[in-house]
Amino acid sequence: MGIIKTIKRRFISMNNLFSKNHLLKDKRIIITGSNxxxxxxxxxxxxxxxxxxxxxxHKKNNLDEIRSKNIRIIxxxxxxxxxxxxxxxxxxxxxxxxxxxxxxxxxxxxxxxxQVEIDEFKKIININAFAPLRLIQILEQSKxxxxxxxxxxxxxxxxxxxxxxxxxxxxxxxxxxxxxxxxFFDLDKKNINIFSIQPGNVKTKMNSSGIITPDMSSQKxxxxxxxxxxxxxxxLIDNNSKILAW
Length: 246
Ligand SMILES: NC(=O)c1ccc[n+]([C@@H]2O[C@H](COP(=O)([O-])OP(=O)(O)OC[C@H]3O[C@@H](n4cnc5c(N)ncnc54)[C@H](OP(=O)(O)O)[C@@H]3O)[C@@H](O)[C@H]2O)c1
Hints:
By secondary structure, this protein is an alpha/beta fold. The protein is built from six helices and eight strands.
C-alpha cells in the first residue's frame, strides 16, 4: 500500500510540473476553516496580494505566524448557527468578492448505523451544510460577491458510495452538494458563480492518509477561482476542473 501511494504521489507531482499556477490579486476573500489544512494553505497563498477575512473554529494559533495587515481573523463555531447581528454586519461590511466555504467536520470515527446519534448528526450537518448556506444567505445581497466555492467531498457521491458507513460526513456533504446546485439557479441571475470543488485526497488533520499536499490542493482551488469559468458554475468539479457526476 505504501509503495502504491508513493507511486501515486510521484505521478501527481510530475503532472503538476506541467500545470500552470494562477494567481488571485486585489480580491476581498472570506475563507472558513482557516486555521488548518487546505484553508490555512489558501490563506498563506492569498494573503500577500488580497484582503483576507479568516474564519476559525476555536483556535487561531497557525494564523498567528502570518504577519500581514491584510488579514482579519474571526472566531465562529459553526455548530451554532446563531449568526449574531455584529457578526453579520462585520462580514457584510467586509464586502467580499469571493467566499470559500472550506470548514468541515468529519465527526466521530464511529459512524455506523448502530452508532448514529441524531444530535451529533445535526451538529455535523450544521457545520458542513447549513453554515455555508447561512453565510451565502447573509452575503448574497452584498454588492461585489461574484464567486462562491463550496469545498465538498467524493464521499458525498451517491453514485460512488460502494461501502456505506460514515453517515454524518457523507450525508452532510451530499446535502451541501444539493444546496449548491439549487443556489446556482438563484445566484446565476446575480452573476455569482458557484463551484462545488472536490479538493483531492489531501493529507491533513482530517485525512492523515491523503496523497497530495494542502499546498498542491489549495493552488488548484486558486486556479479554478482565478479562471472563474461560468460554464463550471453549478457543477461538481475535481481540482483539475473536470466535471464529475454528483
Ligand atoms: N483532506 C481531504 O482529503 C479532503 C477530501 C475531500 C474533501 N475535503 C474537504 O476539504 C475541506 C478542508 O478540510 P481539510 O482536509 O483541510 O481538513 P482540516 O484540516 O480538518 O480542516 C477543517 C477545518 O474546518 C474547521 N472546523 C471544524 N469544525 C468546525 C466548526 N464547528 N466551526 C467552524 N470551523 C470548523 C476546522 O477547525 P478546527 O481544527 O479548529 O476545529 C479546520 O480548520 C473540508 O471541507 C473537507 O471536507 C478534504
